[in-house]
Amino acid sequence: MGHSQNSLFLSLILVLVYGVSSTTFTVVNQCSYTVWPGLLSGAGTAPLPTTGFSLNPTETRVIPIPAAWSGRIWGRTLCTQDATTGKFTCVTGDCGSSAVECSGSGATPPATLAEFTLNGAGGLDFYDVSLVDGYNIPMTIVPQGGGDASGVAGNCTITGCVTELNGPCPAQLKVATTTTGTGGVACKSACEAFGTPEYCCSGAFGTPDTCKPSEYSLFFKNACPRAYSYAYDDGTSTFTCAGADYLITFCPNPNPSVKSATKGGVLEPEAVSYSAAPPNASPTLSTVFSVGVLAVTFWALQRVW
């Protein structure tokens, strides 16, 4: 099937699923280990065809997203399924559903979050990568094909946190297991670690004027300047675009430069197939990428900060 036929086929699938053309999220795992993405739709927004799945190293999943959707995506790590009870749990990012599908449950902190509000104010998409609930895995968001040079339709900036922070995480915030020792598998936020108003921006500290960056939020901000580091970090951490699809990558190239990316360096699927999911799971779209296409992603991410 040729590229134009693939594009038409994908569009027809999206129309059949949602009745209108929609945004697509392409979720890529470049980690050396399996990641189990979780997805949570915001209140009042349409559900997605999946709320959780496994993603092996180098594997990609394309997900159709309905218009005006809001919600978040995160990566679960170190997941296992009990051979006797069938209960599914993850050491980090667990959603508490006891299954691969999160089914309306969010991530247990600490977890790196990709957050979206599509077709919001002014018809713009708003998106960010947040470490407000802590960190467990490197992640980036790359808009594909949206915006324009003037920025009228949003600046369509690449954002994320590409740095591995579990190792250098401050001792007071570090999450470790018996198998990792002092190495760490996640890094808590100060709010999660201490639960006090000055770190949680609550009570007397519930406004931007009274809740300021702490030494702990600055640890995240210095490592990942474009990621949300605490509750009132909007000015340097929320980005806009319009008419875009989004590439969400776990463990991206460690040296990206987070700069404007509109139509250049777009990762395009070489072949698209629609397949029925396993029993009790939602149908999903899957994509196979060529080595050359993955090289384009590497080139694009090298332009991040």
Describe how the helices and strands are arranged:
Layout: H1 3-18, E1 23-29, E2 36-41, E3 60-65, E4 70-81, E5 88-92, E6 113-117, E7 125-130, E8 139-144, E9 159-161, E10 174-175, E11 186-187, H2 190-194, H3 197-200, H4 215-223, E12 239-241, E13 245-250, E14 271-275, E15 284-288, H5 291-301
Parallel strand pairs: 1-13
Antiparallel strand pairs: 1-3, 2-4, 3-15, 4-5, 4-6, 6-7, 7-12, 8-9, 8-13, 10-11, 14-15
- The overall pLDDT, averaged over residues, is 80
Fraction in beta strands: 25-35%
Rg measurement, Å: 19 Å
Characterize the biggest β-sheet: 7 strands, mixed
Low-confidence residue ranges? 1-21, 255-305
Q: Total strand count, please?
A: 15
- Helical content band: 10-25%
Specify the structural class: alpha+beta
Helix count from the secondary structure assignment: 5
* Inertia-based shape: globular
Give the spatial strand order of the biggest sheet: 9-8-13-1-3-15-14
SSE run: HEEEEEEEEEEEHHHEEEEH
Distance between the termini: 37 Å
